Design the sequence.
């Protein structure tokens, strides 16, 4: 038998990708302004290298919209509000719309109170956490983001019942001359979106991402339903990641009256049910604690200390959180955003079903 010929990835510009997503969402029933917001955030995810949370989700979103799983014209509204806090009901709208609104409210409140926390209920998947944690940066604020994942792939430490998700956390710290520090991570060794991306690209997963129910390594992403993600710390110290996932779930979900534990809907297999996804965002106004420029200069100095510190043998460079995504953004702005062949076929199918011009 001959060696199979691998199809090359296609590359598209940020503008073309955003326009394609916006047209698809508009055809699916979103008002044009809402479709534009969601499309920009989805394309931004791909631009920064968060491939598991960008346009790869469009076929799934389309299925959910057609099945009634999303409300395409939501009444996103405040349920409770105090000077420094708010609870936002997303009315089952797309999570990108809900969390953008939540970030805007948190920023506005933090101007007056110094620190603000906004929780959401009845939201949905919103893409990578860093999209929202970074929104306060433009206002000289620190951003924090917490979320309950949209499917449970993690049992309690030592258990088998899937009661926790990847439950991501993100933090964004502004700097001066340096780029901001941006941490975006799941509480599992790998986010489930990365598993999906591996499957789309026909690649195997590294050992240590998932195990089967007998505790053996699972490396075929197409068999992901047969196993479980490992928490941060892996087999040696996974109790730490398990504990962190639980706490983030309580903060992002339970505190705001959103789903957590056994109440989480697996939106990978259920297109029609309301997920009641919970997320939370906090904004910290640096000016409430001191001089903004002094703070940024201190962050710059720390970044340079880390970057210029002595390296172990074989280590070429020491990075700080956020540098890789910044480099990916620059490269993809210049060269285009790669689209795997399997994903392109799925997007072509969406285009055919909606009667729009294909992405490529």
Sequence:
């Amino acid at each position: 038998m001959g060696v199979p010929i691998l199809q090359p990835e296609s590359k598209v510009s940020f503008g073309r990708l955003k326009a394609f997503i916006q047209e698809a969402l508009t055809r699916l029933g979103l008002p044009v302004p809402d479709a534009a917001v969601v499309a920009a955030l989805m394309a931004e995810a791909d631009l920064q290298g968060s491939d598991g949370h960008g346009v790869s989700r469009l076929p799934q979103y389309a299925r959910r919209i057609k099945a009634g799983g999303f409300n395409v014209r939501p009444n996103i509204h405040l349920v409770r509000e105090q000077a420094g806090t708010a609870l936002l009901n997303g009315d089952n709208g797309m999570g990108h719309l809900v969390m953008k609104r939540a970030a805007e409210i948190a920023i506005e409140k933090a101007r007056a109170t110094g620190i603000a926390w906004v929780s959401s209920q009845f939201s949905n998947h919103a893409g990578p956490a860093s999209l929202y944690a970074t929104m306060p940066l433009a206002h000289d604020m620190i951003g924090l983001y917490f979320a309950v994942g949209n499917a449970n792939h993690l049992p309690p430490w030592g258990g088998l019942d899937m009661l926790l998700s990847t439950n991501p956390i993100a933090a964004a710290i502004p700097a001066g001359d340096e780029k901001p520090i941006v941490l975006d991570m799941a509480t599992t060794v790998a986010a489930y979106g990365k598993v999906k991306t591996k499957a789309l690209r026909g690649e195997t997963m590294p050992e240590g991402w998932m195990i089967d129910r007998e505790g053996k390594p699972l490396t075929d992403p197409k068999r992901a339903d047969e196993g479980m993600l490992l928490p941060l710390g892996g087999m040696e110290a996974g109790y730490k990641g398990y504990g962190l996932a639980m706490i983030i779930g309580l903060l992002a979900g339970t505190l705001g009256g959103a789903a957590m534990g056994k109440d989480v809907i697996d939106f990978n297999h259920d297109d029609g049910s309301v997920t009641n996804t919970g997320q939370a965002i906090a904004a910290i106004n640096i000016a409430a604690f001191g001089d903004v420029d002094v703070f940024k200069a201190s962050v710059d100095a720390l970044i340079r200390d880390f970057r210029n510190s002595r390296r172990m043998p074989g280590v070429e460079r020491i990075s700080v959180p956020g540098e890789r995504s910044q480099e990916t953004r620059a490269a993809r702005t210049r060269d285009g955003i790669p689209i795997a062949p399997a994903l392109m076929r799925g997007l072509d199918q969406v285009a055919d079903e909606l009667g729009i011009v294909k992405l490529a």
Observations:
- Residues 10-67+338-360 form a domain with the Hypothetical Oxidoreductase Yiak; Chain: A, domain 1 fold (CATH 1.10.1530.10).
